[in-house]
Amino acid sequence: MVTFLVISCLIKLMSFTRTVLGTRGFSMVVRPSVYAQFVAGETEGEIADSMQKMSSLGLHPMLAVPIEEDLGESTGEQRYEDNLAAMLDCVLMSYVNGWSKNPMMQLKITALVSPELCVKLTSLLKTEQYDLNVLVRAMEGEEVVFPGLTESENTHLLFSLQRLNKIGEASVDKVRVLVDAEYTYMNPALSLITMAMMKKFNQQSAWIWNTYQCYLKESKNILLDAIQTSIDQSFCIGVKLVRGAYMDKERKLAQKEGRTDPIHESWELTNDSYNGCLEIMLNLISEKPERYMIIVATHNEESVRRAVTRMDELGLHRDGNSVCFGQLLGMCDHVSLTLAQHGFSVYKSVPYGSVDDTLPYLVRRAQENRTVLQGIRKERDLLRQELRRRLKEKITGAR
Ligand SMILES: Cc1cc2nc3c(=O)[nH]c(=O)nc-3n(C[C@H](O)[C@H](O)[C@H](O)COP(=O)(O)OP(=O)(O)OC[C@H]3O[C@@H](n4cnc5c(N)ncnc54)[C@H](O)[C@@H]3O)c2cc1C
After folding, report:
1. Could you tell me if the CB of 244 is within 6 A of ligand 1?
2. Per-residue pLDDT tens for 202-243?
3. This prediction's pTM
4. Plot region of 376 (φ>0 → left; ψ -120 to 50 → alpha; else → beta)
5. Any signal peptide, and if so, which residues (predicted)?
6. How many other CB atoms sit within 10 Å of the CB of residue 354?
7. Which domain holds residue 260?
8. Is the CB of 178 under 6 A from ligand 1?
9. CB of 299 closer than 6 angstroms to any ligand 1 atom
10. Angle at Cα 211 formed by Cα 59 and Cα 349, nearest 5°?
């Protein structure tokens, strides 16, 4: 609780200081420890050292540019073009340095498409069907007119799809692009766009992945629907399986709008949902490892143990392409390192960027959950224990 409060206060202080100094001044003068804990740095030069260290420990860095927008924060076409350039740099950086033999990166669609349009598309999806083939044609530059959108919304969607097409073209056969899941009021639109990317780029292997949030009551159905679409439309599917990072805001919003809470009632139900989705994916992978891939993206030791046990039972390769594990930079290194030491493929999600761009990410890291912060405490206790052991060894000479 204390750690949570301290991080929240630090972030509030950061926001205040940013207002006083302005974005640039703030980035250069203030880099609080919470930034150092969860973000690798701002430039390639700054992050290269930690990437090398990570590689030497047997961990794969998975770069993420945590630029994102929520409702009311839209910044205009030029800013989305600038963000595209940042994403393309990220694709390049992910493979040219040889930090990982099977590079992956994360992508937030709301860095390239306005959240307002995503919300509108999400509500249209309740009544309209969008053909993935038509979206693919729009990605390739065809002047498609999408039903239900105004002229300016349609133009923005066409530009956005072309931006995503450029990312797909730059990364296919080189870097696996894992699209993040965000809020339920826009996830259906994000998934539609991601599925269109999968349809185009995942013919031979899963180069584009989607994220499935198991804290949602609907998570199992959403995953099963996606699998069915991939079968019907003949493409490979990559799944990032998470519990979900937006619980507090989702709950508050549902309560405010008088809707049913989209999140499972308890952590235990979220765990059951995570285990169920994991089981579905591991079984599919054991049958067709060339069509299905998963990253078990969690800090939860029980989930990790379950995945490891099931992989052994199903005879899945520890260092094969189809199953890997993921943790966030600054969280649960003991889990990542233990997995890597036992021959599993482990990715550490490495956000980089200015303090300003990474603020929403940092706020979530603080709010996300108290249980992960307990993980940090556990790590600290393990380090203390090891330090004490080594000191004792030095003093007494005993092993
Ligand atoms: C590589 C990677 C990528 C990620 N990408 C995304 C992403 O794209 N989108 C996203 O949303 N998150 C993403 N996450 C964040 C992830 O959602 C959180 O790190 C995760 O929720 C923390 O949970 P955990 O699985 O580590 O396990 P735990 O620490 O065991 O579980 C905590 C989680 O359980 C859920 N929970 C807690 N209490 C309750 C309750 N009372 N009722 C119901 N559920 C509860 C919440 O989701 C909470 O975050 C990613 C994480 C990793 C490691």
Report:
1. yes
2. 999 999 999 999 999 999 999 999 999 999 999 999 999 999
3. 0.87
4. alpha
5. 1-22
6. 19
7. 202-343
8. no
9. yes
10. 25
